[in-house]
Write a structure and sequence with these properties.
Number of strands: 12
Biased composition (Polar residues): 263-272
GO molecular function: aldehyde dehydrogenase (NAD+) activity
Largest sheet: 7 strands, parallel
Structural class: alpha/beta
Distance between the termini: 42 Å
CATH class of the largest domain: Alpha Beta
GO cellular component, one term: cytoplasm
Number of domains: 2
Order of helices and strands: EHEHEHEHEHEEHEEHEEHEHHH
CATH architecture of the largest domain: 3-Layer(aba) Sandwich
Region (Disordered): 112-137, 259-293
Strand order of the largest sheet: 3-2-1-4-5-6-10
Protein name: 3-beta hydroxysteroid dehydrogenase
Length: 293
């Protein structure tokens, strides 16, 4: 299968591209810069210059391929306004991709986060939030899944709060970055809130399985660790960096503060049973031992 991948040179995307190529697929990778184009080509993909703000390029990529995996998302989390721009840009991009695929029966695999459910681990049957800091993303994913009624084999892989590889990535990576800048390995609240996690290489396998096998309108959880306590995450970061570990104000994390403070474990039982997905790489706390002082 020839697959159009957005975000193919990021932490998750590079793992997905490698997984696709290893299993005999070919990849057309969206590249928003010369550096991204070179990285995509070096990985074995054909680069397509453009970004999420280029609907004509997105439609062209979808038209030239047998399926789409969408992973790209803006990386500016500095303010609520910046986060809103990221969400709006992604919504427009997915609208363009979906319109190109209507009536084709081809797969469109998109991405969202695992939902938060009070008092228990979320499952694939739980809806994604459509309010709050990233509620717009939930509305967009819901619309993409609705394309199943228009002959698009649309499906969504829900990623946990941390997708990690060699000690970097996800919300745990943000904690590490903030710790380096502030001199404290911090966590919001009492730190007993739990974050789910998955290794990027395990997540990549699930994206491929969803592309190849998933039925239209379905959702899947790329969750290996159901929930690690945030203060345990901060403790490993602090030890690796030689920094004190302490609770810090939730405002430290800007617009992501309410999400960082929430207890949000998640399950992938149905995903494992239905698609035969089984994570094999190190869990988050083990992988964080790769952080370099």
């Amino acid at each position: 299968m020839r697959v159009f991948v957005t975000g193919g040179t990021g932490l998750i995307g590079s793992a997905v591209v490698a997984e696709l190529l290893a299993k005999g697929h070919t990849v057309l990778a969206l590249a928003r810069s010369d550096a991204s184009a070179r990285a995509a080509a070096a990985a074995g993909a054909e680069p397509l210059r453009g970004g999420l703000a280029d609907p004509d390029v997105l439609r062209s990529g979808a038209a030239r391929t047998d399926g789409v995996i969408h992973l790209a998302f803006g990386n500016d989390f500095s303010s609520p306004e910046a986060l809103a721009r990221n969400v709006a840009e992604e919504a427009a991009a997915l609208t363009a991709l979906g319109e190109e695929l209507v009536g084709s029966g081809r797969p469109l695999v998109t991405v969202s986060g695992t939902p938060w459910v009070p008092g228990r681990a979320s499952t694939e049957a739980d809806p994604v939030p459509t309010d709050g800091p990233v509620g717009g993303r939930g509305r967009t994913v819901t619309a993409v899944l609705g394309l199943a009624s228009r002959e698009v084999r649309s499906t969504a892989v829900r990623l946990p709060r941390t997708v990690h590889h060699e000690g970097t990535g996800g919300f745990a990576g943000l904690l590490t970055d903030i710790a380096r800048r502030s001199g404290i390995s911090g966590y919001p609240g009492d730190g007993t809130q739990r974050w789910p996690a998955v290794h990027a290489l395990d997540a990549a396998v699930l994206f491929r399985l969803a592309l190849e096998r998933a039925e239209a309108g379905t959702v899947w959880h790329a969750v290996a660790d159901e929930g690690d306590r945030v203060r345990d995450i901060a403790a490993v970061i602090g030890r690796r960096l030689g920094l004190p570990v302490a609770s810090v104000p939730v405002e430290t994390y800007g617009p992501l503060g309410p999400i960082f403070q929430a207890d949000q474990p998640s399950s992938s039982t149905r995903t494992r049973q239905a698609l035969g997905w089984e994570p094999t790489h190190p869990g988050l706390l083990e992988d964080l031992e790769n952080i370099r002082p």
